[in-house]
Specification:
This protein has 327 residues and is an all-alpha fold. It is built from 14 helices and two strands, in the order H-H-H-H-E-E-H-H-H-H-H-H-H-H-H-H. The model has no long low-confidence stretch (mean pLDDT 91).
């Protein structure tokens, strides 16, 4: 299908998702709504709820009666979960900025930020419980458990210069890919997919999520300035895939320079630029891009057995977009 038509439909879906998000932020306490709105409506791409909706509609022709509100209401709980993790991450990382604006903790403090993050987790689980579908509730609660483990794993691996590629992928699976996988799996359940197709969407989301996070880690070095605190992860001492690859190939002095910067609280711009050159020279960026492409290819393979329709085209379109995005 023509990309322009796909973009038009995606835009329509995103508008409905946006309105549904606003509708469900209904705390009786204005402060909670204020902080929640600050993080949720700060320029997020809505990839997670969009994947949920598209994964549901991929199979809807197999069901006689469709409650579309049910699908959109389910999709937004994933955005609440995601927003909760962002609030908690910013406290753990002592972040100054998020999506080009001051981090919530900078405006309201760590305690309030953590508590509103807890509220958004609870909000998501409450929406899940209202579905009264044991399968969906099981996927969502299992996902939140795995995500919590991912946060702890990342903390334990802080400044771990010996972090292996396998260990890195375990962290990003739990922090990022598991949630995107759950979006696609829950969407397929809502759409009435067979067990085989549900499993296919689960794995499609997993590999899409792994690629998404690798690209995100690349953008810490190569992204546009707008909306992203360039070098944020590097300055915080996070060992991501480009660094892992570079450290494997780097000469002794280059390796020493990188490791020293990763453990230095304040990194000057010129030092960060030098680090980028070292990573590029040692193929950290190139090999990371290849790895992300590998995961996108795996994700697409899981869609091959599913009959062609518009929503399959849209999922493939998003897969390509996630690989080539620049912010």
């Amino acid at each position: 299908m023509d990309d322009t038509k796909i973009l038009e439909i995606i835009k329509t879906e995103l508008n409905i998702i946006e309105e549904t998000l606003k509708m469900h932020l209904d705390s009786q306490h204005p402060f909670i709504n204020q902080v929640s709105e600050y993080i949720i409506f700060s320029g997020g791409k809505r990839i997670r709820p969009l994947l949920t909706v598209l994964s549901a509609k991929l199979f809807l022709n197999k069901k006689k009666e469709i409650n579309y509100n049910y699908i959109y209401q389910t999709s937004v709980l994933f955005e609440y979960l995601h927003a909760a993790t962002l609030l908690h991450d910013d406290v753990v990382d002592s972040a100054e900025f998020r999506r080009g604006r001051k981090a919530a903790r900078q405006l309201w403090g760590n305690q309030a930020t953590i508590l509103v993050g807890d509220y958004l987790y609870a909000k998501a689980l409450r929406l899940a419980s209202l579905l009264r579908d044991p399968e969906i509730i099981d996927v969502i609660t299992h996902t939140t458990l795995i995500m919590s483990e991912g946060e702890i794993l990342q903390l334990l691996n802080f400044n771990n210069s010996n972090l292996s590629e396998k260990e890195y992928e375990e962290v990003i699976f739990r922090k990022t890919a598991i949630l995107i996988s759950a979006c696609c799996e829950v969407g397929s359940i809502l759409g009435g997919a067979s067990l085989e197709n549900r499993n296919a969407l689960k794995h499609f989301g997993k590999y899409l999520g792994l690629a998404f996070q690798i690209v995100d880690d690349l953008l810490d070095y190569l992204g546009l300035q707008t909306g992203k605190d360039l070098g944020k992860d590097f300055k915080e001492g996070k060992i991501t895939l480009p660094v892992i690859y570079a450290l494997k190939r780097a000469e002794k002095e280059e390796r020493k320079f990188l490791l020293n910067l990763l453990t230095t609280p304040e990194t000057e711009k010129k030092d960060f630029e030098t680090a980028k050159k070292i990573i590029e020279k040692n193929e950290g960026f190139t090999k990371s891009k290849i790895k992300a492409q590998h995961y996108i290819n795996l994700a697409k393979n899981y869609l091959k057995p599913i009959p062609n329709n518009f929503y399959k085209d849209a999922l493939l379109f998003i897969s390509d977009y996630l690989l080539t995005r620049d912010k």
